[in-house]
Specification:
heterodimer, A: 524 residues, alpha+beta, Beta Polymerase, domain 2, Cytochrome-c3 Hydrogenase, chain B, 5-stranded mixed β-sheet, 15 strands, globular, B: 173 residues, alpha/beta, Rossmann fold, 3-stranded parallel β-sheet, two-stranded antiparallel ribbon
Chain lengths: 524, 173
């Protein structure tokens, strides 16, 4: 696949050389720098070959701004980095949102954080930042927002129409699970248009990453996705280990798998309770919290916290697990297995629930690719893609599990995929416990002060919500030069406007819940 | 005509010995034991707030388990998470929509002071919700444990009634 794409891309680009990168070091196979006139052709090239736009990143190198497009593929492992240099004095680039729909949102984000304007983009208004902001936050130098750009600040005005009215879903709404705001254009009870407005919980994680060392940033990862902090921890730790070439002992790898899967269970349980609560059934909420507390009982003595864990370290773990942990986990597996039949009776076999969710929010494979959704939403749409299988980190490569997929792509499929994933997680934990090796939990080769070699890395892991991509640019200092987080909920939310269109408001809540959003992760 | 005591003195001639409780104090007792918090989850702390309301920690024991989704039915706003500059006007609006008497509980370090998100050059976080609305109880932690939030509720009761219903935590240091 990689050779074929290299040859074909070379033929399309003609003069521009296509380089081959060391995948283990860089996280992508091919790279090429294109001129802005070629960009749209390149986007079409990847679109025709079934690629999706995994991430769109902007990096400020002072002399120039660089846009980084990461294209990836669901069918086989092939990642391509396309870069485009732009002049910081006159930052304009062509939009590719006409080819890849998800670029629409990424380009808006880059516009407000870097001031890059995208030619041909239909709506260049601010998505995240508050109206009082007067500079571009992620630029290395403080560049004031020009008067012309200030018009785009807070310029979001939903268009008026005859017989329609607007409803603000959020930012304070119990079914948005946080402070998400969706502006709905309604025709009676039916939704004509939905526009997410973000940034009510923008906590500047990417800015913080640039002014503290790699280790100091570690606690932030747990606060980005508070329901699945282990997976974010794992992603960050493995990314830095990959960048610096730090080995990890076997035991640590297995413990990482066990804890990440336990955390995945607690995240999915939380989703189950909250989703049913959105649909009006409050009883499951009490049941899942009972199970969640059991998980907390296991994790708390080991990690030292109940929620925003910070347990993994570069090269190993914070402390070792003991026999009580192993026994507790085994007992919990038994307990949760018996609870599944209860959940099946209470939820899965409940006609009110199944009739409510069947056939709404249907995502086709094509739309899933164009919007770059990931995780259970992607698998619910019928594409068997799991980063734990395709790019296994820690000890995932040694685990035996299947990837559940949906057949219809509706909200009910998302539910079934997540329930089967929970069963899978139990199997993975059981396997890892059975094979848990003895030995050290921390490598002796970990340097005290991390100074990764110059270069960049795009590293992905599977979180409970989908593909987490971490793009780190290192300039050989002890702080990251730029760190971009490609978060799963952001992409998953962006498919919501088209799913909601033409649906009832009550169904829109059911669709929003099936996407399993965590707001601080979207806003970062 | 009622006579009190052995001397059989009439009420009209003596100082009336029974004091009526101040109506306000009775009401305070009722308020303190049936606090209705608002469903207002901001960030990570919201999950711990939910845990507190669920079966193991059972906020209903203190009469505070009735979470209301609308500010117009709530007495207490639990600010459970980071308040950003974009969220600030929304939060103030919600506070103003709550009927008096009303209380605010700042849960977690972010709501108290901006927590871990305060650094030089930060551009988006309000460094403490007390810059926006008056705060009655501060519960520190990142996030605070459910027990800490329960203690926060007891502190609020104490503030409302002037008395503490349960013994305080033992000081270990």
């Amino acid at each position: 696949m990689v050779e074929r794409i290299k040859a074909e891309l070379g033929a399309t680009l003609k003069e521009t050389p296509v380089g081959e990168a060391d995948y283990r070091e860089r996280g992508y196979h091919l790279f090429a720098e294109v001129a802005s006139a070629d960009l749209l052709n390149v986007a079409r090239f990847f679109d025709e070959r079934g690629f999706y736009l995994a991430a769109l990143i902007c990096v400020d190198y002072k002399e120039y701004l660089e846009l980084v497009y990461i294209f990836s593929n669901h069918a086989s492992l092939c990642k391509v980095k396309i870069t485009l240099k732009i002049d910081p004095a006159k930052p304009v680039a062509p939009t590719i949102s006409t080819v890849f729909d998800c670029a629409y949102w990424h380009e808006r984000e880059i516009r407000e954080f870097f001031g890059v304007s995208f030619d041909g983009h239909p709506n260049m208004t601010y998505l995240f930042l508050h109206e009082g902001i007067d500079f571009y936050p992620l630029r290395k130098e403080k560049i004031p927002v020009s008067d012309e750009d200030k018009k785009a600040l807070g310029a979001f005005r939903p268009g008026e129409g005859e017989d329609t009215f607007f409803v603000n879903l959020g930012p304070q709404h119990p079914s948005t699970h946080g402070v998400l705001r969706v502006v709905l254009k309604m025709d009676g009870e039916y939704i004509e248009d939905a526009q997410p407005v973000l940034g009510y919980l923008h906590r500047m994680h990417e800015k913080m990453a640039e002014n503290r060392s790699y280790l100091q940033f570690l606690p932030n990862t747990g606060r980005m996705d508070y329901l699945g902090p282990m997976a974010f921890n794992l992603g960050y730790v493995t990314a830095v280990e990959r960048l610096c070439g730090i080995p990890v002992p076997d035991r640590a790898n297995y413990v990482r798998v066990i804890l990440t899967e336990l955390n995945r269970l607690s995240s999915h349980l939380m989703w189950l309770g909250a989703y049913l609560a959105d649909l009006g059934a409050l009883t499951p909420f009490l049941f899942v919290f009972d199970d969640r507390e059991e998980i907390n009982d296991i994790l708390e003595p080991v990690t030292g916290s109940r929620l925003t864990y910070c347990y993994f370290r570069f090269g190993g773990l914070y402390n070792d697990v003991d026999d009580a942990f192993v026994a507790g986990t085994r007992a919990f597996i038994e307990r949760l297995r018996s609870r599944f039949s209860l959940y099946e009776k209470l939820v899965g076999g409940n006609v009110i629930f199944t009739n409510r969710t069947r056939g709404i929010g249907v995502i086709t494979k094509e739309r899933a690719r164009k919007q770059a959704v990931s995780g259970p939403v992607l698998r619910g749409a019928g594409i068997a893609m799991d980063m734990r299988k395709s790019e296994p980190c820690a000890a995932y490569g040694k685990m035996d599990f299947d990837v559940p997929v949906g057949t219809r792509g509706d909200a009910l499929d998302m539910y079934q995929v997540r329930i089967r994933e929970m069963e899978n997680a139990l199997n993975i934990i059981e396997q890892a416990l059975a094979r848990l090796p003895e030995g050290p939990i921390m490598t002796e080769k970990a340097p005290r002060k991390l100074k990764p070699p110059k270069g960049d890395l795009y590293h992905t892991v599977e979180t409970p919500r989908g593909e987490l991509g971490i793009y780190i640019v290192s300039d050989e200092s002890d702080k990251p030069y730029r760190m971009k987080w490609r978060v799963p909920s952001f992409s998953n939310l962006m498919i919501f406007p088209e799913l909601a269109k033409g649906n009832l408001l009550a169904d829109a809540v059911a669709i929003l819940g099936s996407l399993d959003l965590v707001i601080p992760e979207i806003d970062r | 005509m009622v006579c009190l005591g052995e001397r059989g003195v009439c009420l009209e001639k003596e100082v009336f010995p029974v004091k009526f409780a101040v109506v306000e104090k009775v009401l305070d007792l009722a308020r303190a034991n049936s606090i209705w918090p608002m469903t207002f989850g901001l960030a990570c702390c919201a999950i711990e707030m939910m845990s507190t309301a669920m079966s193991r920690f059972d906020l209903d024991r203190f009469g505070a388990g009735v979470f209301r989704a609308t500010p117009r039915q709530a007495d207490l706003m639990i600010v459970s998470g980071t308040v950003t500059k974009k969220m600030a006007p929304v939060l103030v609006t919600l506070y103003e929509q709550m009927p008096s008497p009303k209380w605010v509980l700042a849960m977690g370090n972010c709501a108290i002071s901006g927590g871990p998100f305060v650094f030089e050059g930060q551009y988006n976080v309000i460094e403490g919700v007390d810059l926006l609305v008056p705060v009655d109880v501060y519960v520190p932690g990142c996030p605070p444990r459910p027990e800490a939030l329960l203690e926060g509720f007891l502190k609020l009761e104490e503030k409302i009634t002037g008395k503490r219903r349960f013994p305080g935590p033992e000081s270990r240091w």
